[in-house]
Design goal:
Layout (H helix, E strand, L loop, with lengths): L1 E8 L4 E8 L15 E7 L4 E5 L7 H7 L11 E7 L2 E9 L9 E6 L5 E8 L47 E5 L4 E6 L10
Antiparallel strand pairs: 1-6, 1-8, 2-5, 2-7, 3-4, 3-6, 9-10
Amino acid sequence: MLIAGFVISARPEKEVLIRAVGPTLNGFGVGDAVLNPTLEIVNNNNTVVASNETWSTELAETFATVGAFGLDANSQDAALVARLAPGVYTAVVRPAPGTAYGTALVEVYDVSGPARLTNLSTRARVESNQSLVIFGLIIATGSGNRRLLLRAVGPTLAEFGVANALTDPVIALVRQSDQVQIATNDDWNAGGGVS
């Protein structure tokens, strides 16, 4: 199971595109992609507010508008557009019942409105160098630098009832265009510096 949390702040409601990509990942060299992911959007009250097991070709135009790569026609990837009020949400991705586990990608795109997507977090199992958690982000507006807070949380998850939390996570920020590592950190400090 892959869990991605996100926060929508400011009013009014925000329209977001959320995707659970599995089969299409095979075209990007991912050999163990989940073949039929399901997608649920859960609010802070643990209520499922939207769900989907497939995607409609009508969404292809929305994919292009937000800069998302296309999905293979007739694939078993899942995607939906939802209008969400400000609050905390979780996107939960699982393989469909009776299908095998594998690698999946969950994506959240801002489609409309002045409200802001202010937080995005992902919880997944990290097992080895072959099973890393890879999180991507796009800074799409403005010409100056943006100040971001990036965290890799492991031991603190135990306080929230997460069993087998990673005991010593390491985080690295890598620019996709040239694979240059911008920053890395093994342990945080109160001053906010990186090593």
